Amino acid sequence: MEMKLPSAFTQNIRAAFGERGRERLSRLPDLVEEASARWGLANMRAVSNLSYNFVAYANRPERNDAQSKDGVILKIGVPNPELISEIQALKFFGGEGACRLLDCDEEKGFLLIERLQPGTMLAELEDDDKRTRIAMEAARVFSELK
User: pTM, whole model, 2 decimals?
Assistant: First the structure.
């Protein structure tokens, strides 16, 4: 499988992860194929703004639910403490206030995530009191993770 990756993405990976990043980039096509086969993914489309992880929209056509219709997100990163803490946080939230982690492989750096449809951005709300309450609640929840 040939992959055309944005140069900014490959530069970010090399700069952040050195030799591990170069190795990961060279294996990325095989890793994408492995994850696709594992989870029955089809119609994969990489997001346009890749930064430090490979992220793609996909569907699971064998399923007869939202994962087939609305799709899922495949995320493949270089295994590192930040990626592992992201996986742990998504497990902790369990879909409450964050996307659901459908499956993962920490060792390989694979995440299969529920695809959410964007809602209203906090900054777009006209009611300042409501914006403040939402922001304070989010801060409270995140502080409880520590």
Answer: 0.80
